[in-house]
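Go through the following before class.
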Amino acid sequence: MKAFVTTASAAALLLLITGGASYGRPAADAPCAGQIHPNPGFERGTTGWTAGPRIVVFGDATRPAHTGRAYATFAGLDVTRTDLLRSTVTVPAGCDLTVRFWVRTITTETSRGDYLNVGLAVTGIPPKTRFSLAFDGGSQWRQYSMSTGTAATERTATVGFVASETAGNGATAVDVDDATFALS
């Protein structure tokens, strides 16, 4: 009788630990939760990002990061140029991806020629510019967000930051930090 009680207790404990009997069903897919980008705050430079040659990632006591010690900046040089910073992630089937990021603009520009366009391209959906932020976006950090919506199949999502500056109108530096890629 003691062996039966011990065996029954062990079986009950096993059910509690595993969440029940599986009855041959496959393991459940990973939940649609959590931050999936390997380097959202640029603390490891441009790891996980494709960056143009003039993207500078640094921390500066006079222009501190939103959090941590680093951020990406499209350095204002008052030259005609366009720079790109982008990253691609995989969005599992049935999941929504929400991308949140912080932007700050430091400028001496006198016209509206300098800007940052932020786009989102998702498999099966035409690419779309979600935000076009002008030079006068403000020297304080501001948060923006965008999402992919859900789909029945796995997709890739590419987020791109494209900064454009025109010479002769003043220098504009656009800083980006804490670009989180969260599944839900």
The CA atoms of residues 92 and 154 lie 5 Å apart. Helices lie at 2-18. Residues 1-28 have pLDDT under 50 and may be disordered.
